[in-house]
Description:
The chain is 16% helix and 45% strand. By secondary structure, the chain is α+β, with helices and mostly antiparallel strands. It has a single domain, classed as Lipoprotein localisation LolA/LolB/LppX (outer membrane lipoprotein receptor (LolB), chain A). Strand 1 (31-41) and strand 2 form a beta hairpin. The chain is globular.
Amino acid sequence: MTNLIGALTLCFCSVTLANNEFEDFFNSFETLSADFIQQIHADEKKTLTQTSGYLRFKRPASFIWQTRSPIKQTLLFNNHELWLVDTELEQASQRAMTELKETPLYWLLNRPEQLQSLPKYTHSESNVNWYATQQPNQLSFGFRQNLLHAIRLTNPLGQKIQVTFSKMALNPKLEKTDFVLELADDFDIIRSF
């Protein structure tokens, strides 16, 4: 009986600690930088695309999400403006802020106490604790050793997207100039709202 109580206590403590992991992480930094690999899967066996790049983030509301390979694209948020820049097409489009609420980056911009509902711990898999949101795109955050390790979501086509982070640094020194939109004169500018 003592072993059963001990096991139940250990399980309860593990779930309690895991449920605090999401909040603890997102409350622990003012700036963040990381490299990432993003994969889109048609199913569990078939990878459609893979991109790599980096993320830089500074509270309260500045970030840059840039893919380097296979093509260079930048998602930039600064001064309450959201931009998608395609270097190859020499095109920059300003997006409506409502589009941001449907992305994982929305969760980065806001501290847990600013969100209406927090993701809930669902399970552990390969030493990663997973938290799922209530959003229809099945958005989940995975944590390994108290750091954000991966994000999973399903796009409108039913494809599974996973972004895996590496070289994550909390509170690195980032300058305001890291988040300035600089475009060559020959770029087309599109405002889509």
